[in-house]
Write a structure and sequence with these properties.
Strand order of the largest sheet: 16-15-14-17-18-20-19
Order of helices and strands: EHEEEEEHEEEHHEEEEHEHEHEHEHEHEE
Distance between the termini: 60 Å
CATH class of the largest domain: Alpha Beta
Number of domains: 3
Shape: globular
Number of strands: 20
Number of helices: 10
Bound molecules: S-adenosyl-L-homocysteine
CATH superfamily of the largest domain: Vaccinia Virus protein VP39
CATH architecture of the largest domain: 3-Layer(aba) Sandwich
Amino acid sequence: MQPVANVILKKGKEESMERFHPWLFSGAIDRIDGVVEEGDLVSVQRSDGKIIAYGHCAIGSIAVRVFSFGEALPDDSFWKHRIEQAWLLRKRMGLTDDKKTNVFRLIHGEGDGLPGLIADYYNGTVVLQAHSVGMWLVREAIVEALKSVLGKKLVAVYDKSTKTLPFKANIEAKDGYLFGKSSAGEVMEYGNRFKVDWEEGQKTGFFIDQRDNRKLLATYAKDKAVLNMFCYTGGFSFSAMQGGATLVHSVDSSAKAIELTNQNVELNFPGDSRHESFVADGFDFMQDIENKYDLIILDPPAFAKHRNVLSQALQGYKRLNAKAFQQIRPGGILFTFSCSQVVTRNNFREAVFSAAAIAGREVRILHQLSQPVDHPINIYHPEGEYLKGLVLYVE
Ligand code: SAH
């Protein structure tokens, strides 16, 4: 690896980098020695010339995404070393050899020291999503590193970056297999089977990040009438059925998602008449659910992808949760989530708190949920904590 340019910081703007925050904002840059294009490897230097980091440069307010701190230039084994670390963490957490779960996130961007890169493992197939041009440009090296670290555990690598790369990037990305080939497959999570279509599905094909929360839900489901709102492939619905729910309604606005949910229900609970699904808008569906459900799951898509729509997003969470609080049966349980990165834990809690007040119900917090161990949060990058959930008891 050789940096093509040196990014020199303004005097007094070193602090964040020296505290290992992996994002360098453009406002902290004094000048760039050299000509850079998006995705190039650059060194980051203090105003006195000392090199403090290496990263990929980008266009926009985050000007450099740092993957290596310190003076030493990362060598060719760098990607392999990082992926080894990521694999080892999952192994130590018992995910790589679990007989009942064979789907997990292997690389979680900043959380695994690889800003701009996501890799999800689906029983042998790794689905890559580059969020930065820099990571997309090194994808072949990442594949080689994956082959070397995973060995026989790797069957194929599918690159699905076209939707996640910055849309202004001047590159011609195409989705496709970078190694081997596999087609839409079946995975298992705590013994539940899921059909996953990484080529056509949302994100990398499955919302892996709710694994632990789905498991918790099962413990609350016995004898309950359950509404799984924003169900996607139906994950929470099976947990509810597994846990002994008497009735489960799955709702999503995407007909494709509902089709997958139905297929998955058939796979796990063939002929089980407790389940019914609906293609509908969440807000519409919740107009009229008075006293119908004891357990409601609200896992909407990110309402705010950018900070400038934060207050609008918080209104959205408030309205949605108010509908649930107003209509859930007495003694009901609400599992409510936000996966918007710009919505902080406190923002979300306040929105839910306001919703409870609108409904005038007595509400207690039973659990405060987050993302699982395969979505680790780099302690120097608090922005990585994106999934927030509350389990609430409604009197
Ligand atoms: N709970 C799911 C993940 C939810 S992702 C799981 O455990 O896998 C969010 C889902 O909300 C997507 O499937 C998307 O199709 C759906 N969605 C988006 N807008 C919607 C709306 N207005 N009404 C209903 N569903 C919506």
